[in-house]
Amino acid sequence: MLRDEAVKLGLTPDDLDRLAEPIPTRTEAEAEGPGEEDVPDPPVDVLDPTTRRQIRVALEHLRRTRPL
């Protein structure tokens, strides 16, 4: 039944076989997580200095114009 549907979609039997292959199991090294060589990079600052300054100036302006 699956092969019939694959043919309707234009897949060859080889395409279906390749798509239906089981996912290989993980090795112990992969299951442990990142090793010392795979240390993640520190997070990148999303806002550049110019944008941070613009936000700071806008917040200071709002503090001066709004009564508490």
What's the SSE blueprint?
Layout: H1 2-8, H2 13-19, H3 28-32, H4 49-65
Radius of gyration: 28 Å
**Number of helical runs?**
4
Helix amount = 40-55%
Helix/strand order, N-terminal first: HHHH
Largest sheet: none
Notes on the structure:
With 68 residues, this protein is mostly helical. The longest helix is centred in the last third of the chain and has 17 residues, at 49-65. The protein is built from four helices and no strands. The mean pLDDT is 80.
Q: What labels describe this entry?
A:
68 residues; mainly alpha; 4 helices; 53% helix
Write a short abstract of this structure:
With 68 residues, this protein is mainly α. It has four helices and no strands. The mean pLDDT is 80.
